[in-house]
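[recover] target loaded
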């Protein structure tokens, strides 16, 4: 049973590559917009061999982390409360002039602002 499923998966991926190559051979789009599987494979191999693929991935991950940190830090500093609505996505619920954690402090029984400051002080680069 498992061998049959594995064979079907392999056949599916081969079919995708054959259709992809067929579309590329039809010259509907230019190669810079729709490259062939061979061109993609060559570029992927070149990127792996010279390390530029890993550098590009690391650069993208770093930009993602910086953006996330700015979003989280900005939200905490500004005290913006968001709610998620099924139809409208994220909706601003409240903008506070002072960030408070009263509900979280009651539930966790910890002084959240104090914990955050102590964490920042412990982990700051000196």
């Amino acid at each position: 049973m498992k061998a049959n499923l594995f064979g079907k998966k392999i056949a599916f991926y081969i079919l995708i590559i054959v259709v992809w190559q067929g579309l590329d051979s039809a010259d509907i789009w230019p190669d810079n917009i729709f490259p062939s599987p061979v061109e993609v494979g060559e570029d992927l191999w070149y990127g792996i061999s010279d390390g530029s693929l890993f550098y590009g991935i690391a650069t993208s991950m770093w930009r993602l982390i910086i953006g996330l940190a700015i979003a989280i830090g900005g939200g905490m500093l500004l005290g913006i409360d968001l709610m998620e609505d099924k139809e409208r996505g994220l909706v601003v619920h409240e903008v506070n002039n002072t960030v408070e954690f009263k509900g979280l402090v009651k539930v966790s029984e910890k002084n959240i602002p104090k914990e955050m400051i102590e964490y920042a002080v412990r982990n700051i680069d000196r």
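[recover] notes: The chain has a mean pLDDT of 84.
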